[in-house]
Design brief:
Structural class: alpha/beta
CATH superfamily of the largest domain: FAD/NAD(P)-binding domain
Radius of gyration: 24 Å
Pfam families: Amino_oxidase (PF01593)
Largest sheet: 7 strands, mixed
Family: Belongs to the carotenoid/retinoid oxidoreductase family.
Strand content: 15-25%
Oligomer: single chain
CATH topology of the largest domain: FAD/NAD(P)-binding domain
Distance between the termini: 68 Å
GO cellular component, one term: mitochondrial matrix
CATH class of the largest domain: Alpha Beta
Helix content: 25-40%
Domain Amine oxidase: 43-386
Subcellular location: Mitochondrion matrix
Shape: globular
């Protein structure tokens, strides 16, 4: 029977989501007002707003599909994966509304419950092992937490309110460039008065925080362990919450700054529900495609399979367009780069156009990544010991969650981090498992599922600073699958196919320098006024007419779109002066 299902899974005539609307029928023109390098979601958003502002804009994407890391790809026949990013929450609501993304096809599946942490333990008196499930129903969530600590159950609502207050207070900072320090400190009185407007978002945030400013300062600077220990006593709850403080980041709950990473992951909203994360129909490519349709409807030209080799620099030292790898030149008055700062300034920009001190500073940007993403096709639903499948085989509430494996205690997370820092992929890795096909039937054949495994901690280079080999990848994937098997026996036999993306693979496929999903570490020295460097925090580069618009700039990573929006506004303001 399994073999028959596998055959069905592998050969059903499903249409690949990656191809829908990815190609433009418009010919590439020799001249534009603006060229955007890279069709990640920020580049697409920037193109939409620039076109809306009256500037003829083209987006040039190296790969065959639009979306950067927010893409859907049919890697295994019949199975459609959110190949890199896999959940939606952080996309700024005003962008969602301005670009009419729902009208342009964006559909989201809300998850409730949203978090499931099974334990590895022997059940008592024949019962299943315990687990912790968190969801929107506060009474049920408190009941779940009460299995481990009545005290924690009681204070949990206060903790949620505490996080929401802090997260909401910094929203004004997300939707505007950082403070204009040069404008405030240099130039004429008129320029200084104009630059005072850049203080408005900071003042708004300060007023919203009010008496909570000390709490905010502590959370963004302290190890999250310190904060969680003050609130809670139960290990499963602390460790589950701590996963959001390290996910995607090369840090541990014991490291200063991990509290900010937690805040970054709870500052979003979905369908007006604060802090919620959901699945996009058709995979994360559905987000990018809806933005692309909106941009096209406004008149932007979007192209795939156009690999930019270099930014063209005019005799006056300003950006004049780009040259493709096939030698084609396309001229423009402005160039936006959605690539990482490293690729933008070390590979795409002629080095003699940049100050030597700036190039040195670019070399110091931290791109360390701890992440491996494994996409798995299975021919049956995982069956967890802590929450056995029903007789009819239908998904349970826990299957729609972010499923946290090897997250029973802070010490397990800390040990996984320590191994990664020594050049060894964690022997007991932190795993965030999602099964979006339980809510979205477009992703897999009937009875089959797509499984996303987001894993930490894996180094970019292995012990002895050697590169990953195929054998290393397979060995680590086997380690991950073995751990999933501990929680859900039978998982390994259900695997139909897999796609393993270690940090070097994420770099190679998606252009993520160092494999870093945020286009650069979200550490305290690379945020706000210092993202990615103090000299380019306002999206302008040292080359006139060349701007950053990707996640490497403020306010950072995640499918948020704020960097694209902010950079587009900066270009529109500057364009009036050109």
């Amino acid at each position: 029977m399994a073999a028959a299902v596998r055959a069905g899974c592998a050969h059903r005539g499903f249409i690949s989501v990656t191809r829908r609307g990815s190609h433009s029928s418009t010919a590439l023109k020799p001249q534009y007002d603006v060229i955007v390098i890279g069709a990640g979601h920020n580049g697409l958003i920037a193109s939409a707003y620039l076109q809306k502002g009256g500037l003829k804009t083209a987006v040039l994407e190296r790969r065959h599909v639009l979306g950067g890391a927010a893409v859907s790809e049919e890697i295994i026949p019949g199975f459609h994966f959110s190949r890199a990013s896999y959940l939606l929450s952080l996309l700024r609501p005003h962008i969602y509304q301005d670009l009419e993304l729902k009208k342009h096809g964006l559909k989201v599946y809300m998850r409730d419950p949203y978090s499931f942490t099974p334990m590895l333990e022997d059940g008592v008196r024949g019962r299943p092992p315990r687990s912790l499930t968190l969801g929107a129903d506060l009474a049920k969530t408190q009941q779940e937490i009460g299995k481990f600590s009545e005290k924690d159950a009681k204070v949990y609502p206060d903790f949620l309110s505490y996080l929401e207050r802090l997260a909401c207070a910094i929203h004004p900072l997300l939707d505007a460039p950082p403070i204009d320090i040069p404008g405030l400190t240099q130039g004429s009185l008129r320029k200084k008065i104009s630059a005072l407007r850049s203080l408005k978002p900071l003042v708004k945030s300060g007023l919203k925080l009010g008496k909570n400013i000390p709490d905010f300062y502590e959370l963004v600077t302290a190890p999250v362990m310190k904060v969680l220990n003050r609130w809670f006593e139960s290990e499963p709850l602390r460790a589950t919450l701590a996963t959001d403080s390290v996910i995607g980041a090369n840090t541990s709950p014991n490291n200063p700054g991990s509290g900010y990473v937690l805040l970054h992951h709870v500052m979003g909203e979905l369908e007006k529900e604060k802090g919620a994360w959901g699945y996009v129909e058709g995979g994360m490519g559905g987000v990018s495609e809806s933005i692309a349709r909106s941009a096209r409807s406004l008149g932007a030209d979007l192209f795939t399979n156009r690999d930019v080799k270099q930014v063209l620099i005019g005799q006056d030292g300003s950006a004049k367009g780009i040259v493709l790898t096939d030698g084609t030149e396309v001229h423009s008055k402005v160039v936006l780069s959605n690539a990482t700062p490293y690729i933008t300034f070390k590979q795409l920009t002629p080095q003699d156009a940049l100050p030597e001190a700036f190039i040195t500073a670019v070399d110091q940007i931290d791109y360390t990544s701890p992440v491996t993403k494994i996409n798995v096709a299975v021919d049956k639903l995982p069956n967890f010991l802590a929450a056995p499948n029903s007789a009819d085989g239908k998904p349970g509430p826990h299957h729609q969650c972010s499923i946290h494996l090897n997250c029973e205690s802070m010490e397990v997370l800390e040990e996984a981090y320590r191994e990664g820092q020594q050049g060894y992929p964690s022997s007991r890795p932190m795993i965030e498992m999602t099964i979006p096909s339980v809510l979205d039937p477009t992703l897999a054949p009937p009875g089959c599922h797509v499984v996303s495994l987001f894993i930490q901690f894996t180094p970019y280079l292995l012990e002895g600073r050697r590169a990953w080999t195929d054998e290393d990848r397979e060995r680590f994937a086997d380690t991950v699958f073995d751990w999933v098997e501990h929680y859900a026996p039978g998982f390994k036999k259900a695997i139909v196919g897999k796609d393993i993306l270690t940090p070097p693979d994420l770099e190679r496929v998606f252009g993520l320098t160092g494999g870093n999903i945020f286009h650069g570490s979200m550490s305290l020295d690379q945020l706000y006024l210092a993202r990615p460097l103090p000299s380019v925090a306002d999206y302008r580069s040292p080359v006139k007419g060349l701007y950053l618009c990707g996640s490497g700039s403020h306010p950072g990573g995640g499918v948020m779109g704020a960097a694209g929006w902010n950079s587009a506004l900066k270009v529109l303001a500057d364009f009036k002066r050109l």
